[in-house]
Structures are given as structure tokens and as C-alpha cells.
Amino acid sequence: MAVIGWIGLGHMGGPMTANLVKAGHSVRGFDLNAEALDAAVAAGVTRATSIKDAVEGAEVVFTMLPKGAHARAVYFGEAGVFANADLKTLLVESSTIDIESSQALHDAAIAAGFRLVDAPVSGGITGAEAGTLTFMVGGEADAVAAATTYIQPMAANIIPTGGATTGQAAKICNNLMLFINLAATSEGAVLAERLGLDPQVFWDIASVSSGDSWALRTWYPIEGVVPSAAVNRDFAPTFTAELANKDIGLAVAAAVATDTPLEIGKHVAELFQRLVDQGQGGKDCSMIVKLVDGTLA
Ligand code: NAD
Hints:
The chain is an alpha/beta fold. The chain has 14 helices and 9 strands. The protein folds into 2 domains: about 5-165, Rossmann fold (3-Layer(aba) Sandwich); about 170-290, N-(1-d-carboxylethyl)-l-norvaline Dehydrogenase, domain 2 (Orthogonal Bundle). The chain has helices at about 15-20, 35-40, 50-55, 70-75, 80-85, 100-110, 125-130, 140-150, 165-195, 200-205, 215-220, 240-255, 265-275, 290; strands spanning about 5, 25-30, 45, 60-65, 90-95, 115-120, 120, 135-140, 155-160. Strands 3-2-1-4-5-6 form a 6-stranded parallel β-sheet, sandwiched between helices. α1 links the parallel β1 (about 5) and β2. α1 (about 15-20) packs parallel to α2 and α1 (about 15-20) packs parallel to α7 (about 125-130). It starts with a strand and ends in a 5-residue tail after the last helix.
């Protein structure tokens, strides 16, 4: 069993490390947030007091951080992963970040002599808890193959995507579709109720009809229908509106860079920006339903 270093023990990193511990690995975790670190330690992770403490002597280091800026902060600098990990250590960057930051990490890894893959995930907290995430893994083929062994206890699907940053590219396009689906589900759900349909009856129909989607099955934004949905817990976040805003913003930026018109994506990005501007960034992204039912403008 391996010694694994892990930086970022939030909504995703917490349950993902719990599955590595259950698989018999020794996980040394670090997070700036004391609560997140305590929760991971309660699930069997060994407390690290710094990035250096987490990565020294580890066979593999995973990072699961909010945005590109956090990933850069964790990898670069005197206290960072590149300065403190052994060159033999495999680096697996699993956060969803912009292509430029991902490329900068790959470039720095190659320059220093590290193997690094970008390995973002899909499946949400429920997938993280169940160990059924989809990992999209980009990088040199031997590094991707090596990462697969460690990823296994957290994943139902591990899909090599090609060279450096292609995992991020897959993730960004997937989440563009997810958040458009969430906006569409919110509109259908509110309209169905206003047309007199029982929410459960409508959900039963849509989930076996052409309106089906992962967003509908997992995040349905009407209370009392889908147990995993944040609407049942006053929109306590499973995936924050701020992170959704970030992800769809990554797609819009990538579309600008590739001269791709994203009419719907750009509109949905504006909806998430409105949630963030109204102080709802820390709530679950399914709060977007509040822009449909008129609670928020
Ligand atoms: P989160 O904010 O809950 O967790 C991130 C953690 O990183 C926090 O605990 C934070 O304290 C820690 N952190 C930030 N900077 C740090 C630093 N310099 N050193 C150490 N720790 C640091 O976010 P999350 O929901 O776990 O998401 C993590 C990543 O996974 C994001 O990129 C997100 O887009 C992606 N993602 C999330 C979900 C989801 O459903 N939540 C699903 C798929 C992918």
C-alpha cells in the first residue's frame, strides 16, 4: 500500500481521501482550513502541518483545490510541491482549473523532472463518497498509466484523454453541458409546478424521458424529490455557485480563445454571475432555480 500526499480536503478531497484510506493507503493530508483537516483526520487521514509535511517521501501527491490560482500557489514557491517533493513522486492535479494554469504546471513539472498529470473529476460529492467518480487524465502515457493505479479506489471510470491539459479540456466542456442542463432543469421544474404538476410525478416522467440529465437525477431543485439535492438542506453547498461560475467561465474563456460561439453557455454564465453578485456564491449552484421562481432577480 502506498504513502499518498493530499492537498485540499474540501467537499471533494474529504470523501476522496476517505476512500483511499479504506483501500488501505496511508494518506497524509493538508488543508489551510482547520475544519476540513479535522474532518479528514476523523476519517483516517494523517494530519500534515504543511505542504512539505504532506509530500515528503510520498509515492504520489494529489491536489484538489478550488481554482487555478490556488493550484499555482500550492505547486510553486519555496513552500510548494515542486520545491519539496521528491522527483520520483508522481503528481496528480485533480482540481478543475483553467488550461493556462494547467499548462504552466505541466511545463514546470517537465522543466524540474517530475511526472505530472491533469486529472479532473466528474460525479460530485455523491460520486466522491461512493468512489464512483469519472477521472479524465491528461499527460504522458506512462504517467497516466501510473496514476491509474492510485486513482482506482476513487473511481468508476478512468479515461485517458491524451496529452497535457486534455483532461482539463474534457472537464471544462463536460461542465459547460452540466450547468446548461442545470439551468434547463430549473426552468422545466418551476414551470411544471406552475402548470399544476406534482413535482415527484414530473420528475418520474422526465427521468425516464428525453428531459433526463445528471443534473435532473442528482440536483433536482424542488424540495422533497431527490434526496441528494441541496434544495432539501437550504442550499448548503454540494457544489458552490462560485465554483459553477468559475467552471462555466472557464468554458467561455476557452470559447473566446478558440473563436467558438457559446450563445447558451454565455447566457448561463451570466445567471451564475448574478447569483454571485447577490451574495449567493457560497450556496449550492442549484440556487439558480431562485432566478426562475422569482425569489432572486
Ligand atoms: P472546496 O472549496 O470544498 O475545497 C477546496 C479545499 O482546498 C478547501 O478546503 C480549501 O481550504 C483548500 N485550499 C485552498 N487553498 C489551499 C492551499 N493553498 N493549501 C491547502 N489547502 C488549500 O472545493 P471542492 O468542492 O472540494 O472542489 C475542489 C475542486 O474540484 C474544484 O476545482 C472543483 O471545481 C472541482 N470539482 C468539484 C465538484 C463538487 O461537486 N464539489 C465536482 C467535481 C469537481
